[in-house]
Design goal:
Helix content: 55-70%
Structural class: alpha+beta
Number of strands: 6
Strand order of the largest sheet: 3-4-2-5
Length: about 400
């Protein structure tokens, strides 16, 4: 380059273009070498294969408290709480260690060359982290498993890895179903034992009430009630039945869920509302303008005693009927394998890798290589004094 101070170049875009033209041969060799290296690297790097399956939750059809009460009388609206969050729960279960363990045991992953020698916890963690769970607005859950090959993968290894990604995804669905069934059966067993315990107590109470009522009728020759008292009894029986059944379902939910959960609190609130209604009936009807209800405290002692006995008898009969129904329902659930999820699409081995993208790798690699090369040429020229960051003027 000319050493005349007047020809020293100022740093600008024109200077960069001048440097590129001046060193074009070196740039061509550098970029060609970078292209070859990137191309070789794309064949050396591990390849990732993804396989996706989709499922949705099956709506449960249960004969719970709301259905039973509806067949007896009109009750407080009580929706299916928590059903909309079921898929979110499934998504969290799929990320758990238990599902990873079930997948490893089902596919015998510890015996595969890829995972051989790995400690169990590390293997479980690898499988757990390989899952990507997505839930769309339509209630469809997508499960994706991503598995990598080793360096320098052969065609056989690529095919085996693609198949493994599909097998792991499908095994995760089976593991989720198995986990749900085992937990459901376990809960049903606990609930059935609790119901049997309560049922034994209620049967004894009903037998005792029957004997007392029979003795009372014989002693006092009480056979019927007047219309007003009969209306009070009917109201008390309906509300009392609802209250008793609500208390049972509240206790069952406490066994099944966390006592502080919204579902348990909702059942607790229902018990409180029914208790208030029941107390108002005892004091003279649900509303003060009710002209056909008589406070039981004002009924003659004989009539009141009889009313209380009949009320307790009917309540216990309805409670026992409900408990018998629930007991058999839980016994069936305990022994059954009712599906909790429905598979829309099973995972299949992918035909192409998901990463790395050879085209993207080449483009980004060449862009970065070109940028680094230009920066290097500029720094080299600055160090050599061929260009300056500002214009230099010198007097002759």
């Amino acid at each position: 380059m000319n050493n005349n101070p007047k020809e020293i170049k100022e740093f600008s875009l024109i200077t960069i273009w001048w440097l590129i033209k001046l060193r074009r041969k070196f740039i061509l060799i550098f970029l060609s070498t970078a292209f070859i290296i990137l191309l070789a690297l794309s064949f050396i790097l591990p390849e990732e294969y993804e396989s996706t399956a989709s499922i949705y939750s099956i709506q449960e059809k249960t004969g719970g408290l709301s259905t039973f009460i509806a067949s007896l009388s009109s009750s407080i609206p009580f929706g299916d709480i928590g059903q909309s969050n079921k898929l979110q729960v499934f998504a969290e279960i799929l990320k758990s260690r238990e599902i990873a363990k079930l997948v490893c045991d089902t596919l015998h992953l510890s015996s595969l060359k890829k995972f051989k020698g790995l400690p169990e916890e590390i293997l479980y963690d690898l499988i757990r982290k390989s899952f990507t769970i997505q839930l769309n607005r339509n209630g469809i859950l997508y499960i994706t498993s991503s598995i990598n090959t080793g360096f320098f993968p052969s065609n056989e290894e690529k095919q085996a890895t693609a198949k493994l990604s599909a097998d792991i995804t499908n095994a995760a669905i089976w593991s989720l179903e198995y986990f749900n069934i085992v937990k459901s059966n376990s809960k049903s067993r606990i609930k059935r034992k609790y119901i049997e315990k309560v049922l034994t107590t209620k049967r004894k109470e009903l037998d005792s009430i029957d004997r007392v009522l029979e003795e009372f009728q014989k002693s006092n020759k009480v056979l019927a009630l007047d219309k007003q008292t009969e209306a009070v009894v009917t109201n008390a029986i309906k509300t009392g039945t609802e209250l008793a059944l609500a208390e049972i379902d509240y206790n069952l939910k406490q066994l099944e869920l966390n006592p502080s959960s919204p579902v348990v609190n909702a059942y607790k609130q229902k018990v409180k509302i029914l208790q208030d209604q029941y107390n108002r009936i005892q004091s003279g009807g649900l509303v003060t303008s009710d002209e056909f209800s008589i406070p039981l405290s004002e009924v003659p002692k004989l009539l009141r005693t009889y009313t209380n006995l009949v009320r307790d008898q009917k309540i216990l009969e309805q409670v026992n009927l409900y408990l018998e129904t629930q007991k058999y329902q839980e016994a069936i659930q305990e022994e059954s394998d009712i599906p909790t999820v429905e598979v829309i699409d099973y995972a299949v081995p992918p035909l192409q890798r998901s990463a790395p993208s050879r085209t993207l790798l080449m483009i980004l690699g060449l862009i970065i290589s070109t940028a680094l090369l230009i920066i290097g040429l500029i720094l080299h020229s600055l160090i050599k004094g061929s260009i300056y960051l500002r214009k230099i003027t010198k007097e002759d």
